[in-house]
Q: What sequence folds into this?
């Protein structure tokens, strides 16, 4: 059975994150949420706890979502450490994966972040003008075994919620099994290599 990992960046929030979780729950699916630590507050933390209760994983997307490839090593380490600590305080599990903001990486980032770097196949769902239909078409056209799908659950992103209402049931119909990033690597028998940026479980992007 082919596997696919749905991932969501830039949460948590109390507007879009719960709607994404509703769709996952209705379809017996799981996802991986890459959190921005500055978006974590008592209310949004409840969304994180709900995600964990549904079998989702919570991973690191920095504190401020800034250009980390321009930061000093000390600032890089602080961005990741603080985010991981906030996540662990809620979930009891330390993040294993890191999605670099803007998918911008540097040698200093690899040298100072001891997590597996994740990219993924996106559908430009961070662009408001991209319609729900376009997002749906792009995700479904590019779906393949071992893929990491890059989506966003920022609080204005209604079009991605609408797209997921079609994407998730259709991928189920095609026989895909939804897994977290950690499950994807474990079940594919792939040990992540540090210093590489994974576009799917079997392929890395050579940056830099």
A:
């Amino acid at each position: 059975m082919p596997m696919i990992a749905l991932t969501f960046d830039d949460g948590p929030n109390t507007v879009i994150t719960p709607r994404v979780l509703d769709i996952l729950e209705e379809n017996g699916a799981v996802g991986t949420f890459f959190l921005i630590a500055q978006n974590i507050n008592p209310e949004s933390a409840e969304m994180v706890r709900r995600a964990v209760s549904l079998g989702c994983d919570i991973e690191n997307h920095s504190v401020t979502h800034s250009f980390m490839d321009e930061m000093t090593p000390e600032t890089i380490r602080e961005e990741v450490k603080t985010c991981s600590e906030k996540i662990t305080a809620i979930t009891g599990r330390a993040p294993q994966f890191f999605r670099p903001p803007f998918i911008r990486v540097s040698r200093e980032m690899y040298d100072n972040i001891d997590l597996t770097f994740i990219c993924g196949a996106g559908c430009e769902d961070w662009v408001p003008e991209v319609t729900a239909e376009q997002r749906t078409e792009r995700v479904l056209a590019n779906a393949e075994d071992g893929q990491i799908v890059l989506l966003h659950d920022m609080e204005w992103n209604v079009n991605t919620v609408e797209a997921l209402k079609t994407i998730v049931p259709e991928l189920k119909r095609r026989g895909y099994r939804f897994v977290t990033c950690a499950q994807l690597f474990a079940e594919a028998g792939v040990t992540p290599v540090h210093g590489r940026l994974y576009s799917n479980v079997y392929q890395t992007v050579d940056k830099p």
